[in-house]
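Record type: monomer structure entry
Structure origin: computed from sequence
Chain ID: A
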Amino acid sequence: MGFVKAMDDLPWILKVILALPGLDLVWAIYRIVKGVVKGNTVTLIAGIVWLLVGGWTIFWLADLIFTILNKPLLFAD
């Protein structure tokens, strides 16, 4: 749970930077870890999908928009 808390406690600007293309893979790993820790299958599967295709598809844009609006990441419950 330490990784999830550390990511949740990051400053807003750092979260925005990590949502940029290529760096967005960090949020994919966040989803995977959070899915495992909370036992949430949807979050775990979303993290795996994000890891495989998120960095070079439109998924990074969703993370960027949600982060800028200071909303929880999509499928990271």
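Annotation 1: The helical segments are 2-8, 12-18, 25-38, 41-53, 59-68.
Annotation 2: The CA atoms of residues 21 and 56 lie 7 Å apart.
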